[in-house]
Amino acid sequence: MSMTISIFKTGTIFLCLLLLFTRPDASAVAPGASSIPADSFIVLSLKGESILQKSGILESEAWTPILARFSRTHPDIHEVLLDRNSSGLKFQAPLQFFARMGGGDSPSPSLGIIAVAQDPAKADQTLAMIAKTLGLSRKKGKGNEYRKEGSPLGIGRKGRICYLLGVTPTVKAEEGEKAPSIDERLDELTRVFHSNEKDVAKFPSSLKAHLSRTSDLALYLDGTGLSELVEDFWPDDQWKNLLPALDPLFNRQIGLNLQSSRGAIKVTASEFTPPGRQTPRAASPLAMTGRLPGDAPLVARWSLPEDSLRAGASEAMGHLLKFMSAGKLNKDSVLPGFDASATELLDSPSGDFVLAGGTFKALIVPNEDSIPTTELKPSFVLGFGLSKPHLFSQFLAGLNMAKSLDTLLYAGDLHLSSKKDAAWLSTFDYLREIRADKPIAPLSKYRANLLNQHAFALDLNLLKANRSLRELKNLTYEQFKTLHWLGDFSRLTVLSEEKGNLTATVKLTDKERQGWEVVAKHLGQETIDSTNRSLYQAIIRDDFNAIVQEVRKGAMINANDRFGHTPLHFTAFRGNARILQFLLRNGGDPNARGRHESTPLHSAAWGRNLQALEVLLEEGADVDARTDEGETPGMTAALRGEKDVLEILFALSADPHAVDDHGTNLIDLAAAGGHRVIVELLQKIGVKNKNPLHVAAGLGDLAKVKELLKKGREVNERDSFGATPLLIAMVAGQEKMVELLLSRKADPKINAREGYTLMHGAAFSGKKSMVSKALSLGLEINPRYGSDGITPTDVAEDEGDALPYLRALGGRTAWELGNLPEEPAGK
User: Fold this and answer.
1) pLDDT in tens, 693-736
2) Which of 317, 423, 574, 804 has the fewest CB atoms below 10 angstroms from its CB?
3) Which residues does residue 298 pair with via DSSP β-bridges, in sequence order?
4) What crossing angle do the helices spanning 692-699 and 725-732 adopt, rounded to 10°?
5) Mind spelling out the 3-state secondary structure of 422-434?
6) Residue 75 CB: number of other CB atoms within 10 A?
7) CA–CA distance, 823 with 789 (Å, rounded to integer)
8) Distance in angstroms (rounded) separating the CA atoms of residues 439 and 427
9) For residue range 357-404, what is the model confidence (pLDDT) as tens digits?
10) Separation of alpha carbons 100 and 112, rounded Å
């Protein structure tokens, strides 16, 4: 097992390196492709430069810490990455990966990666560097080949072809014979590869056709090779007898081509049909599609040729019956209880199938931690056409002789309904529509055309499905994480074409972004989160020894998690100065930028952690670092009422007169927090009070507010952030002031900039009474603020009684609600 893992790791390094060194080619068959062995059953082609450019990996914020860590562990390779032209590889040639079965009495899987050299001398230097990374040494004699005794990998160059070849660590030998060693099998593979004629005419027609097509990423699968692999390595048990039933699936050659563009990813699946195989069924309008609920996120239709459906199903059933009856029954045997053979019963379906679904019901499951989890139960309706309904009735009667079918349906909360020409299996949600033979919401014209013009058609409205799932309660973190990355995709459409090809198009919610960019962002973020998961857990436990181990293992200290916080931000907020100092002295950046460009110093101020703040300042943190809205750490401290923090920052030349992008200064923020001591401190050092009515409202100064109103100040006067005195009083939790301003006709429905509402202010106060007051004034529980859609639940103080009250009222975070765009009409 350890050797297998080693092969994967070293092969992945080589693959990533060549991916970075290659660029696309527009020729019919790309250079290097002619070196692929003709008996390969897997061929993967990657246009490295195209994928890199479209994904933006080298400029991606998510990938920056990953590449930085790679540069520390592989500095020589990093130098090459900075100047890929120095690799000596031909940029115009895509990277080719192949897998094949070795010949001889003891066949075994082998693999290879092929790239083309532009400058052989420079390519040799690159190969030598990679060989050093993989622990390989140059073989004696002619040529440029690197090997290691007992290693299943070898790399080298012959002519213009650079390659990596590998064999599996183990091989299945014939009984009584000794399996060849790894070195012997690698020698044989190298000999075959070098003797391989560089002529595409040797390829089977399917592989030749596949290689003539161009795309960012292409995959060729020859099922016969996969079948041989499965058959050779499957244990000699009873299940091996069922493998012949899978022959119709394996005996195919399939090509997949993936192409990214702005706003979409397109996948084309092609089956290279040999002469004599039945062509796909032509599309025709299908009455069953008119019975599908048009408001379901997912609708699909699949029409198969009746003859091929029956022949394939009958053959598979025959193998299954033989297996289960120890050879006593076959497909033509009369089955007990059915009074018909499997072949006869399988004459019932017409080959037409329709499906609708994509919504779920939540099943709350209690567990030992007293925190219930949610299991998702899908809601769906499946219809299948009947050409001989009486045979289907006979089939059902046989299944239900002992009420077994009814019992299974009841256990699964399923219902089976039969019509004259179709049968329908559905959950309770769609039962009424099926029985009425009329959907509540019919298919849109767009969807009806899709289903009626293609033998296979699938339309999945990902935005609608995402919204539906987010309405459920008690979803797990992993479920929300899946919904989060799915939120970047709006629709999936899969259609069959005239020649039998399938084309799948995934549309993005942002039409200006490249598909690979979205995929790369999520892959990078998942890599960071999985790498740093144990580090965050150790920080929560204040487990210093575990943190030391995680840092030694390569934790990415300056990388943001999916919520926009680095381990430094998290530690500064929690306040463990010892851990923070260790992270800073082991590569941590005291000015690392997190969500909204905040720094760990902002986090320390927000967490009211003086010791953490002092450590950061000692290590060079910028006292006036600004977020994307211009907020300084001093502003954060003023809002949080941290006088000691402010005095330290001012002693280190922090600007007490700083103003954010909205025009808000430290006095405005200190008053919003209700901190009179901070306001007085700031006034003593000359900070101007630009909004006296708002400041008085935040400090709860009833007399001052009455005086200002009497002198003609407007009760709904707005400051530079767009906030009214009522909103400031609500944020500060000044209950008497709120009542006074409301009695003077203050408008509770006036929002500040970007949708910051009175309910946000009530939640920020941490007081249940403030939330209750906002609710009584007609405010929503989940209004959204800013580009991130921040909700009151997001800003509620953890230690107050407002948060549990909001939760009880149905309050949700932005993470839970998502930030999905509106759907276009008519689809």
Assistant:
1) 999 999 999 999 999 999 999 999 999 999 999 999 999 999 99
2) 804
3) 357, 460
4) 30
5) EEEEEEHHHHHHH
6) 9
7) 17
8) 15
9) 999 988 877 766 666 677 888 999 999 988 888 777 777 777 676 567
10) 9
**HEC sequence for 697-731:** HHHCCHHHHHHHHHCCCCCCCCCCCCCCHHHHHHH
The three-class DSSP label of residue 247 is helix
Q: Given this model, what pLDDT does residue 644 score?
A: 96
Q: Given CA atoms 738, 741, 746, 751 in this order, what sign does their dihedral have? A: negative
The reported pLDDT for the residue numbered 825 is 56
pLDDT band for position 6 (cuts 50, 70, 90):
very low
Taking CA atoms, 155 is separated from 79, 172, 191, 815, in Å, by 21, 25, 13, 47
Model pTM? Answer: 0.85
What is the Cα–Cα distance from 734 to 727, expressed in whole angstroms?
A: 10
Instruction: Calculate mean pLDDT across residues 92-121.
Output: 83
**Cβ atoms of residues 95 and 46 within 8 Å:** yes
**Contact assessment for residue 727 and residue 703, using Cβ atoms and an 8 Å cutoff:** no
Backbone angles phi, psi at 136, to 5 degrees: -105, 155
Radius of gyration of the chain (CA): 33
Burial class (CB in 10 A: 0-12, 13-18, 19+), 142: exposed
Q: Specify the residue for token string 């002469």.
A: 275
536: number of Cβ within 10 Å: 18
Instruction: Give the separation between CA 427 and CA 424, rounded to whole angstroms.
Output: 10
- Report yes or no: 450 and 286 within 8 Å, Cβ to Cβ: no
> pLDDT of 633-685, one tens digit each?
999 999 999 999 999 999 999 999 999 999 999 999 999 999 999 999 999 99
Structure tokens at 825: 């009409």
SS3 568: helix
Locate tokens 């048009």: which residue? 294
Q: pLDDT at position 321, please?
A: 60
8 A C-beta contact, residue 509 and residue 488? yes
Distance CA 193, CA 203 (A): 14
Instruction: Give yes or no for a contact between 690 and 728, defined as CB atoms under 8 angstroms apart.
Output: no
Residue 237 burial (C-beta neighbours within 10 Å; 0-12, 13-18, 19+): exposed
Residue indicated by tokens 């598909």: 515
